[in-house]
Description:
binds S-adenosylmethionine
Amino acid sequence: xxxxxxxxxxxxxxxxxxxxxxxxxxxxxxxxxNRPLPMVLEIGAGKGKHALSFARQSPDKHLIAIERxxxxxxxxxxxxEQQKLSNLSAIHADAIAWIVHAIAPNSIERIFILYPNPExxxxxxxxxxxxxxxxxxxxxxxxxxxxLATNIEAYIDNAERQANEVxxxxxxxxxxxxxxxRTHFEVKYLARGETCWQxxxxxxxxxxxxxxx
Length: 213
Ligand SMILES: C[S@@+](CC[C@H](N)C(=O)[O-])C[C@H]1O[C@@H](n2cnc3c(N)ncnc32)[C@H](O)[C@@H]1O
């Protein structure tokens, strides 16, 4: 990585993880501490449609799926308990505080952020605009990916610009297939005939953040 690349996001206001208390009833699942399988994160899992099918189809990965809204999380855990998937941890928490307290640097293979809240009136809450995104990148392994999907064109345009100009991450953008059914929101948007986009970001060798240690 060039000095320019490091400077680009390191000129931004730094995230302050020390200011965040652990979520209520916080505990780290044994699998996060022991890491018997490569770990994958999902942020804002909703009712868990994607989390459940990903865990079923990828028995060689452990998925930690985080959702903060109580009623969605309850629907998710009900199904997760019925399906007894030992490679899925469903977490009811704010993902930012939970990740800060539970996840070690350089430990996650892939991060899914599927149809995040659009935050059109509060763009500083969009994931790639947040200082927290640098912390999140520190948790990703080299070669690891962040997969972001949205139906909001302005959201994906901004995310792509931030990926190139601030985070300087190699990335690819594509349109989600019209028959894709990964999440409840994806099903809803595609059924309405809307276009959905996906941006895949990759953490390259030598990438540095202020939270690597
Ligand atoms: C638009 S919904 C999409 C849900 C699901 N991914 C889908 O596509 O069907 C966005 C979800 O992200 C959750 N969420 C937003 N910010 C979060 C955070 N900081 N931590 C955990 N969940 C969050 C919300 O509660 C909501 O359920």
